[in-house]
Amino acid sequence: MSALKIEKGSSSHSVYALRDPFAEREEKHTLAVLVENEPGVLARVIGLFAGRGYNIESLTVAEIDHKGHRSRITIVTSGTPEVIEQIKAQLGRIVVVHEVHDLTVEGAAVERELALFKVSGTGDKRIEALRLAEIFRANVVDSTLESFMFELTGPSDKIDAFAELMRPLGLTELARTGIAALARGTA
Questions:
Q1: N or C end of the chain: which has fewer CB within 10 A?
Q2: Do 107 and 185 touch, CB atoms closer than 8 A?
Q3: SS3 92
Q4: What is the mean pLDDT of residues 119-124?
Q5: What family is reported (predicted)?
Q6: pTM for the full model?
């Protein structure tokens, strides 16, 4: 049995003693949900998350089959493996949900995000913003004498990195679409 040494003036617990080595860690998962394209479906899906205190980190929705009236909802959420399984099961019980796929565990997937960045600046900051945009392969989609608007597509970490570099150069506004994802391969 090991003893916890507490020095005078220190807190009553060691940081290491507070950690539970058997506690499950939260994981980020990307879920693809095929649903009926009808009013109120998105609200029901979102309500499931809100009602149970689950967080949505990213959400994208679009119709994918006009004739079949189907939409695809891509949700990025996080939780313990048990919580993720609960989310998938609860989504599957919603009547208008046809399929629920956990792209994180079903194999390799391609995830992309689109972002627009408005960067204001003149002189050296303007030149540096253009140079970095070229390195990141961002497109200039609007330009004035005082600002640029860049469009960038890629994984979320690329979007995050570009945003961090643009902040000191005059990033004034940022809009992100959220993640769109598909499983790789033929299935």
A1: N
A2: yes
A3: helix
A4: 93
A5: Belongs to the acetolactate synthase small subunit family.
A6: 0.77
Torsions phi, psi for 25 (to 5 deg):
-85, 150
Q: Point out which residues pair with 72 in neighbouring strands.
A: 34, 62
Give me the helix-helix angle, 81-92 and 41-52, nearest 10°.
150
Q: Could you report the per-residue pLDDT of 161-174, keeping only the tens digit for each?
A: 999 999 999 999 99
Q: Is residue 126 part of a domain?
A: yes
Q: What is the CATH number of the domain that holds 141?
A: 3.30.70.1150
Structural domain total, the chain: 2
Residue 35: enclosing H or E segment and its boundaries? strand 27-36
Domain span holding position 79? 27-102
Element (H, E) at 88: helix 81-92
Q: Are residues 92 and 115 in the same domain?
A: no
- Are the C-beta atoms of 144 and 121 separated by less than 8 Å? no
Residues 6+ apart with CB under 8 A from 84: 27, 29, 77, 102
